[in-house]
């Protein structure tokens, strides 16, 4: 089986809504929200572009006939719901032009939408430019996935040039650059390293959703790395870490997003937008495109209600919503010297 098809099959097999760090976060209810549903906007701005919704379809797949069909449906989904769309890693298309159409189908189906190309952190500036040109992309995602590579039987084993290559791409590319994890989260130290080389948009992509160490370990003859299935920093913990970093950058949350409430909580931590992969992919595979479109529209409507519930007229207003932390997220704050009480005192 093609590796990309195997990833999709295993992601579907392992996908099931489960408890994660978002369950550690409670909204402190205020009984007088002073809000009006009809005057509430869930719009956001990211990469210098206005978006009608504060969430998007994050990077997933591409590189085979089956995954090309998935990208086609994702592009239609993005077009019909007004969502930004990121493709999976385009490295396969750069190596083998015969599979390029499994990625370019996204632009064909959604010619006027905002589309992000995706490439690995070990890629050169030249390949980054080729990837952007291939998709006529509005921005580039550079993904960080060291744990996945090390568990992947055929993965990379050398990471010494990642940061310097990212710096070169940020300086030399004509479109915005997002640096994202792939479900292992980010510490404040990592975020600061990225800011120091010029990155201004960061997707912390925490653990709690799809585990690529689990997927890659399932592909091995011997399951040596089963203890890494839950490796990483959770999405809420990563958001807490990000909020401890001084300086300006646009924060994106992703990893384990199950529903509109998880999107809402991420935005309350200061995320500009929220990326969703597995929940959308599973809906698409189990049901169909029309039902997935309806689900996205339902989430958009639910978010207007959630904004109204807390008196937020805009996405920016959500930063004022008081939050109460418990469980592992609270323990993380205590261990890392983060004052979690400031969230409840907003």
From TrEMBL:
**Stretches assigned to the FMN-dependent dehydrogenase domain:** 160-320
Q: Name one GO molecular function term.
A: isopentenyl-diphosphate delta-isomerase activity
Main site of residence?
cytoplasm
Q: Where in the cell is it found?
A: Cytoplasm
UniProt KW Heme keyword = no
Output the InterPro entries linked to this UniProt entry.
Answer: Aldolase_TIM (IPR013785), FMN-dep_DH (IPR000262), IPdP_isomerase (IPR011179)
Q: Name one Pfam family in it.
A: FMN_dh
SUPFAM superfamilies recorded? FMN-linked oxidoreductases
Quote the EC number: 5.3.3.2
Task: Summarize where FMN binds, as residue positions.
Answer: 59-61, 89, 118, 180, 210, 256-258, 277-278
Q: Which reaction does it catalyse?
A: isopentenyl diphosphate = dimethylallyl diphosphate
Q: Where does substrate bind?
A: 3-4, 148
Sorted UniProt keywords: Cytoplasm, Flavoprotein, FMN, Isomerase, Isoprene biosynthesis, Magnesium, Metal-binding, NADP
Name the coenzymes or cofactors required. NADPH; FMN; Mg(2+)
| Residues involved in Mg(2+) binding | 149
Briefly, what is this protein's role? Involved in the biosynthesis of isoprenoids. Catalyzes the 1,3-allylic rearrangement of the homoallylic substrate isopentenyl (IPP) to its allylic isomer, dimethylallyl diphosphate (DMAPP).
Family listed: Belongs to the IPP isomerase type 2 family.
Q: How does it assemble?
A: Homooctamer. Dimer of tetramers.
Protein name according to UniProt: Isopentenyl-diphosphate delta-isomerase
Give the organism, scientific name: Enterococcus eurekensis
């Amino acid at each position: 089986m093609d590796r990309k098809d195997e990833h999709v099959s295993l992601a579907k097999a392992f996908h099931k809504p489960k408890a994660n760090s978002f369950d550690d976060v409670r909204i402190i209810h205020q009984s007088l929200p002073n809000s009006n549903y009809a005057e509430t906007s869930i719009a956001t701005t990211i990469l210098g572009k206005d978006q009608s919704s504060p969430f998007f379809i994050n990077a997933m797949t591409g590189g085979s006939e089956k995954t090309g069909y998935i990208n086609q449906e994702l592009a239609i989904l993005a077009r019909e719901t007004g969502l930004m769309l990121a493709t999976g890693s385009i490295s396969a298309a750069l190596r083998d032009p015969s599979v390029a159409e499994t990625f370019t189908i996204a632009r064909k189906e959604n010619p006027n939408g905002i589309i992000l190309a995706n490439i690995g952190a070990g890629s050169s500036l030249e390949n980054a430019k080729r990837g952007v040109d291939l998709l006529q992309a509005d921005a580039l995602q550079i993904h960080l996935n060291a744990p996945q590579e090390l568990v992947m039987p055929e993965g990379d084993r050398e990471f010494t040039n990642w940061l310097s290559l990212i710096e070169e791409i940020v300086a030399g590319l004509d479109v915005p650059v997002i640096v994202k994890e792939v479900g292992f989260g980010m510490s404040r130290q990592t975020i600061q390293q990225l800011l120091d080389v010029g990155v201004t948009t960061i997707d912390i992509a925490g653990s709690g959703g799809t585990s690529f160490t689990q997927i890659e370990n399932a592909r091995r003859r011997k399951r040596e790395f089963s203890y890494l299935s839950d490796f990483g920093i959770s999405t809420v913990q990563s958001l807490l870490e990000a909020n401890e970093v001084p300086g300006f950058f646009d924060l994106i949350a992703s990893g384990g997003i199950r529903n509109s409430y998880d999107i809402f909580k991420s935005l309350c931590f200061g995320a500009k937008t929220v990326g969703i992969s597995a929940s959308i992919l599973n809906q698409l595979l189990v049901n169909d495109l029309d039902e997935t479109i309806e689900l996205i529209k339902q989430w958009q409507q639910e978010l207007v209600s959630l904004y109204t519930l807390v008196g937020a007229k805009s996405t920016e207003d959500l930063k004022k919503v008081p939050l109460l932390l418990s469980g592992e997220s609270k323990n993380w704050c205590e261990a890392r010297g983060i004052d979690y009480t400031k969230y409840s005192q907003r």
